[in-house]
Design brief:
single chain, 117 residues, mainly alpha, globular
Length: 117
């Protein structure tokens, strides 16, 4: 799997994560951090399954790309939770966008680092 495909897959799952967070937060009275945690819990297995399915077609990295994406998603949630708890008047889509960009940058850096090996 090459870098643009990896970025595209992670970006697509970031968008899916945002929509699931929106659906959970608007459909229930949960706090936005809890809604994002549920969203990560829902979309992370889907991302792992999609990457695993694509890795079977082109075996070049195996589990490493799944681990990189999982770690970047968890870091993105952590950054989101920190931004929201430190700035309670900040709207959550802004915090989501900032955290997702940071997580995607971490995933790209991890991908490039893994490919150097």
């Amino acid at each position: 799997m090459n870098l643009p495909v990896f970025i595209l897959i992670n970006a697509a799952f970031i968008v899916l994560d945002g929509f699931v967070t929106l659906a959970i937060s608007s459909g229930s009275n949960l706090d936005i951090v809890v809604a994002r945690l549920w969203s990560v819990a829902i979309t992370l297995p889907c991302l792992a399954y999609a990457l695993n399915h694509l890795q079977r077609a082109v075996p070049s990295g195996g589990v490493l790309l799944i681990v990189i994406s999982g770690i970047s998603t968890c870091v993105s949630f952590g950054i989101f939770a920190l931004i929201i708890t430190r700035n309670p008047f900040l709207q959550w889509p802004t915090a989501f966008l900032a955290a997702s960009c940071g997580g995607l940058a971490l995933a790209v850096a991890g991908y490039v680092r893994a490919r150097k090996r």
